[in-house]
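Quick start: load a record and inspect it. Here is DUF1304 domain-containing protein:
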Amino acid sequence: MEMFAWETAGKRAFSTSLPKELFTPTKRLAANQGLYNGFLAAGLVWSFLIENPEWTINIRLFFLGCVAVAGIFGAFTASRKIFIIQAIPALLAMLFTLLSR
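Running the structure step on this input writes:
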């Protein structure tokens, strides 16, 4: 969303936390953030394609850890809601990944 629809879908998603006049001037910053999110998603998808079970878990835990840290940081710096939406699912996925060993 940040990369391709910041001024439309992004505006709807963040309408309660950001003023509407902020979206156009921050379009490039949002695209950069979207690119980072895309790399995280690619890493998680990659973790399902790796054939070595040990590497699968290690890579998955690394990328889930990145998502969790970003969610925790976002909760402290932006909104506690980010912790619920981003960090908790990542932490649960890490727990289930570890339990699957």
